[in-house]
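EI: anyone free to look at a 195-residue chain?
SC: sure, send it
EI:
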Amino acid sequence: MPNRPSCHPIRVRRSVAAVLAAALATGACTSFDYELLRKHVLPTDENGRIVDVESGRALADDDVDALIRDLLQEAQAGATAQARTSGRRELLIHIHGGLNPATASLATAQAALRRMQDDPHAPHAIFIIWPSGAFSTWSDHLLRVRQGVRWPQAPGWATAPFILVSDLASSIAAAPRTLLFQWALDARVAAKVAF
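SC: here you go
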C-alpha cells in the first residue's frame, strides 16, 4: 500500500482487488511455484514459528534470518523496479484472516502474485501466512488452548467437555442478538442500494 492511501486510491483498489480476485480463484491452483512464493511469502506454523514454504518444517534461526533478509532484498528490488515505471515505491503486506487453511492461503498468494506480475504499477507484495482452518482452529480451542496458553494434553482433553458446553450455551444465548444485528445491517445496506 502507498504511504498515503488518499493520494493513489485507484492503485490501492487494484492491488486489493487482485488479492480478492485471487482468493476466489484458488480452486484452479493445483501446483505451487515455490520459487515465486519464496520471494513473497513469510509462512508460519500454528505456533508462530517461521517455516519453509514448501516442506512446512520449522526453520533454524540462521535460516529464518536468511529468509527475512531475502524477502527484504526482494522487496527492495521490486520497489526499485516499480519506481522506474511509476515513479513510486509501494509495498503491499497481506495478512489473511481466520478460517484459511495454509494451502488455500498459499494458492491465494500465488494467484494474486501472478495477477500482480502482469501490472508494472503493482506494488511489491509480501504475504504472511499461517494455518487457520476452521477445524484446526476450533480443535485447538476445544482441546489445547486455554486463555491463550497451550495446555498439556491430559488437562486439555479433561476440560474439553466443559469448553464444548460453554461454547454451545454462549452460541445459543448470543443467537438472537447476532441475528438482530445482522438483519439491521442487511436492512441498512438494502436501503442504501435501493435509494
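EI: The longest helix spans residues 153-194.
SC: 👍
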